[in-house]
User: What shape does this take?
Amino acid sequence: MGIENHDHAGLDRRNFLLNATVVGAGAVLAPMVASSEVKAAEAAADAHAPAAAGSALTLAEVLRVAREKLYPRCRVCPECNGIACAGEVPGFGGIGSGASFKNNYESLARLHLEMRTFHDIKKPDTSISIFGETLAIPVLAAATGGVTYNMGGKMTEEDYVDAIVGGCRMAGTVGLVADGIGDPMEVFQRRMSVVKQYGGKVVVLIKPKSQDEIIRRIRMVEEVGGIAFGIDIDSAGRAARAVAGQIVEPKTPKQLAELAKASKLPFFIKGIMSAEEAEIALDSGARAIGVSNHGGRVLDHTPGVAQILPAVADKVKGKITIIADGAVRHGADVLKLLALGADATLCGRPLVRGAHGAGKDGVALILNGIRTELVDSMVLTGTATARNVSSNTISEVRA
Assistant: This one.
């Protein structure tokens, strides 16, 4: 249901809670780990938290502006659950019936946090290390693209990439920058020009085009100082193949190994939805995998990511970095996915809203809000560190 259909009293209550969350973002507790890298990551996030900086920017205002810019591509619903936008591709919806998008959301919602308060954990450590970088939170911006055909064209490619990469930097984490199925090389170059301004420090995902096209883009990622590259293999779906004149294709294990050997940068494969393919990715030389059904936007009726993640973790946890991508909206969602075996998570649609609502400040504001919620969830579940979250932190409620 879109936000337009909700009563004013409900909106007032929601906005109060949203604003309260934002104001608290500046008061996030410092981590227990005393390493200089963790301190630097935390300091970057704290320095740009809205309350600490004295900014009047609120989440309610960010969402209001985002709604004006994104509508009708995105209604900025209070609950981003895939119901109102089902079938809206291009746009933000899940493909077909929207079942895959909704399964991502619902499989997370079925997981409950186990409250534990008999402990001495008062300052949990939310930091992680990934691709050689220490991040303040286990959340990276998902590779979202297509500002013209998916987002309504109210931002330029350069402004959008700047908002995502800059906002992530402000919050002490890193962003993923997307390739586009139908985009000419010139558009990819424009994205990389923004990445270069930030000294690299991003992960670039490339569509599963021909091997030569992918390797051409890998060289550009190397030139601008990217920290990792990858392919979102899940883009080889029906919607992508429908773009005239573009080659997008599944990849054989041999082709994956060729890409892994094409660069010294860590190779990330996003679009893993089975334990079997997680092992194949590992054997092919990937350093990280993304458990993802592409936000439910490429194949109808897939399971939710939270349903697949435990089996993947059972097979490859500790051997390869596992990044979970599916309906991350709040800090509690992050903790749930870590408890299922992820090392880190991706956040997509909320940060698209943040970018459109207030540029890099909007992205940082949303990430800092998630960080605050994550700290609260960790304290109230007795979780000391995001690097080691017990499976006992969650329980599944079955209908």
Q: What stands out?
A: Residues 1-394 form a domain with the TIM Barrel fold (CATH 3.20.20.70).
